[in-house]
């Protein structure tokens, strides 16, 4: 492993540590929506049928698997998500985005996308942004396939 490998990993960690709290603060100030809520709502909204099992949500969401259940509980309490029982497996449930959840997500999207542009992509060229996306997608794909 070379210095460049370590530098790439360290830069990824520093970017994450710097930007997630900043974006969380901006989303909460503008929309009253924590970053973790936005992330879960975004995953549910883009899922088939706008629902995911708790296990699927734990795999897809940026929030840790151990926190997914707590975040979903908060979203249910806020009426942005509902829980549906799984007819095939009574031990599991689905999280489903509600219409109110979709409205809040739509309202927050410009704030979220603006923060990405301001704090992340505006400091890169389009080619650098594409390269970062491709490289990180390869890492995610290798983990999904057991790499």
Q: What's this model, at a glance?
A:
This protein is mostly helical.
Would you give an account of this structure?
- The chain is mainly alpha-helical and 147 residues long.
- The protein has a single domain, classed as Winged helix-like DNA-binding domain superfamily/Winged helix DNA-binding domain (Arc Repressor Mutant, subunit A, Orthogonal Bundle).
- 69% of the residues lie in helices and 9% in strands.
- It has 6 helices and 3 strands, in the order H-H-E-H-H-E-E-H-H.
- A 3-stranded antiparallel sheet has the order 1-3-2.
- Strand 2 and strand 3 form a beta hairpin.
- Helix 1 packs across helix 5.
- It is globular and about 50 Å long.
- The mean pLDDT is 92.
- Let me know the average pLDDT: 92
Number of helices: 6
CATH class membership: Mainly Alpha
N-to-C SSE string, H for helix and E for strand: HHEHHEEHH
Beta-strand content:
5-15%
Number of strands: 3
How would the global form be characterised? globular
């Amino acid at each position: 492993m070379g210095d460049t490998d370590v530098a790439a990993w360290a830069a990824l960690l520093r970017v994450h540590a710097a930007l997630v709290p900043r974006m969380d603060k901006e989303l909460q100030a503008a929309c009253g929506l924590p970053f973790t809520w936005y992330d879960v709502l975004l995953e549910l909204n883009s899922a088939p049928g706008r629902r995911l099992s708790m296990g699927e949500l734990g795999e897809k969401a940026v929030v840790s698997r151990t926190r997914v259940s707590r975040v979903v509980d908060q979203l249910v309490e806020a009426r942005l998500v509902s829980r549906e029982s799984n007819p095939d497996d009574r031990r599991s449930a689905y999280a489903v985005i509600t219409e109110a959840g979709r409205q809040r997500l739509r309202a927050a999207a410009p704030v979220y996308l603006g923060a990405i542009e301001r704090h992340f992509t505006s400091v890169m060229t389009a080619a650098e942004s594409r390269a970062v996306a491709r490289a990180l997608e390869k890492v995610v794909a290798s983990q999904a396939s057991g790499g």
